Amino acid sequence: MQFFLRDESSARLRAFGNTRSRGLTVAAVCCYVLMLAMQLYVLLTFRGEPISDAARYVGTAMRCVREGHFYPVAADFVGKGTAGTGYVNLLIPLLRLTGSVRSAYILNMFFVQILLLSVLTLAYRATASPDVCACTAVFFCLSAPYWSEICVARTELCFSALAFAALALLFRKRGGLPFLAGLLLAYANWVRPLGIPFFVSALWVLLYRRQKWHSYARLLAGAAVMVAAICLFTYHSSGRFVYQPTIGSGNLLIGANADADGSYSDAVFAEGHAGFIPSAQKKTMDYTEINAVYSAAAKAWIRENPGKYISLIPKKLFYMYATDTYAGEVYFDNLKTTAGKDYVRRIADMLRGQDRAWTFGDVVICYGQAFYMLTFALFLWGVIRSMRRGYWRSLSFLYGIFLIGTAMVCLTVGSGRYHFPYLPVLQITAAAAVESAAHSRRVQQ
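Structure (tokenized):
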């Protein structure tokens, strides 16, 4: 254990120095202004209606506003499970006050600012380098999903902002902040059930920083208080004392069936397939009963086809990390799909002068994809460089998030959207690698 907890102060100083580059700071500010300008452009020009998961979240919130209650109620557990519960319950008061879904987009802009501040805090605390912090800001602000995701009422931004804010709080010295971090992590998991990687990372942060037992107790107490409060809230609104009543086993079945190809395809739920439940029957089933059907079908297929299940892992990883185009629909008012391989094929046709003419949205999406691929490549290089330069322990809490989150996808199903919460890990690691290389050149000169 002492090997993993070894202090890296001297290694960080050798890798990054302690200088502050005025040029890099100016570049970071300029990139931040660019990000704000693109967000305002998207906010002012977007005229589309919510689609896919966003349509479900907004539609559920509007229904709750009309009916005068919060989410969920007893009927939400029959025939379906809840989705994005914590986010929907943030939308409900917004829609009651404003009556417009645009208030959700403004809230998303706020979440981006929280996420940026949290990520910069983590970058500085992990490396003790102002230049790494500024370089992280450049990578963050030039990442196209943060420009357009604000007009997509999904859970990714809300979850990421809360989860990374919780980790940032753990690097402060005030005694009550671990409790607040626990509250935020538990609520983030209510927004999107991806809290496990971040909770493990939070425990590792406390261990690496050699915090006393009461810091762990406060973190756990904060999480327990929030979970209990959510359960009581759900009991009051629905009569059920539950925390996260989702049909999560549906994702497991999508990634473990005879037709699975690693991508997010819902064909398994069609008639004649393993996940098919007649609509008349499904309308009478509790979410736990639906989960049991999906889980049993997935586990049975895995037992019978362990080799094929394992062979799907590379495909799931490819679908998770290959593309970064999922937030581009807003440039087309949600009338065109930009996620997945179909849009990539269309871009390839456009490069050959076929299909249709280029639009501003196509250009931004292609830029975003290219910059994402650069960031991902620098991340991989950064992991190797951190091991060679001896500062990998300082970033290990971020690597843990990436590894556990990736493992969860390997067990279920891959989708480009699923890497969104891990973008800050790529950005901080890439920034640390770039600044480490730059510092090495300065020293040699």
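The chain has one domain: 9-257+312-444. The mean pLDDT is 93.
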